[in-house]
Amino acid sequence: MLDILIYPVSGVMKLWHLLLHNVIGMDDSLAWFLSLFGLVITIRAIIAPFTWTMFKAGRNTSQLRPKRAAIEAEYAGKHDEASIREMQKRLKDLNKEEGVNPFAGCVPALIQTPVIIGLYSALIQMARPEGGLENPILQPVGFLSTAEVQSFLDGRINNVPLPAYVSMPAEQLAYLGTTKAEVLDFVLPLFITAAILTAINMTISLMRSYQTNNFGSGFSNGLFKVMVGLSIIAPIFPLSLGLTGPFPTAIALYWVSNNFWTFAQNAIMTLILHKKYPLTEEFKQHQRVQREQYRAELKEKKEFLNARRKNRVLMVLQPWRSSELHSENVSMTNARNEKINEEKATRKAIVEKRRETQREMNRASMEKLKQRRAEVRAKKKAGPRHAASDSGSSSSNVSVDSAIDSDRRAHDSSYDGPSDAGSSSSDGGGGDSGGGD
């Protein structure tokens, strides 16, 4: 599977190397060095239109959130078939009217992830051949021949071999004609730069996500917290992996160039997004209300926890009141849990009823489809026997077929799939997210 992903990456690198070395006449090592940047430029330029589509789709989806919330509030508590069908149709028409495609944001990840895997696999195969660097057993890597792989292994930047990495054994470094200190002096600034750019890219993505975060969704709020945690941890990976793992100099060069491209792309696209598709006042008001409700819930939870902690401290300082304070804590906890469980039970009951109604709708739809298909098959089998019948019978069959086709089209237009109507309140999580690349 990975071999398939290597071919497009190796093909792009080969074309850049041929252009720089054979056509322009650059030094072989410099040509391989610049081909890494050429790879970044080529791949990211191809992905850029899809990334912009993702940004735009996220913004459009966020802008629709107040209208979606109004529709869902109108049908809150309703679980009959007519209400579910009407709500699904209105939400579907809203997306169609505004040109929102919920799957538009998936394209960049579907393209970029295989490219990253293919790039890493190609560079690792070239930088770490079978048999080791002392007695390499060279094999073609994708579209790169064994001679080109050997040329890559011989490449040097600032007198540091492209296959060398910090944690490489001393004997292999000596075979390549370098030392750990020389490699470290060259790659450490690269990994530090990659870490800084990663932190900046994550910060830009967080700022954009916060502006459109769905504070009314527990999943969206939890996802945003995870992103905050990742933004703290993510910059550590380039340093830790680069200094302790088998990450050649070529990988370090790619990381820096790719992160710099991401930084420039995110900054430019974010500015264009805010200028060309500014957030509407309707969305800002809706977002403000949701954020205030979310903060009020957090404040209530914090006050509850502080009150319980205060009583626990008083139990230590005033042991003669421990029974009273403990009872107060139990009473507060039970009252709060009872309120939360009651709200959850109410929501769960509505969701379960909607799911059951949706299942009944799906079963009824499938039965109708099966019945119509059986009728069509029966008429096809009976067709030859009725061929000699009068024209009135023939026209009757045609009219029946037309009616069946009409019913099927009507069914297809009203049937919105087996998705759970109760889950329609989630609209993409954090809005304009996904800019970290």
UniProtKB/TrEMBL annotation:
Ranges of Low complexity composition bias in the record: 389-403, 415-426
Transmembrane portions of the chain: 30-55, 186-210, 222-241, 253-274
Assigned keywords, A-Z: Membrane, Transmembrane, Transmembrane helix
Keyword Cell membrane assigned: no
Domain Membrane insertase YidC/Oxa/ALB C-terminal residue range list: 32-269
Protein name: Membrane protein insertase YidC
GO biological process: protein insertion into membrane
Disordered: annotated segments: 326-437
GO molecular function list: membrane insertase activity
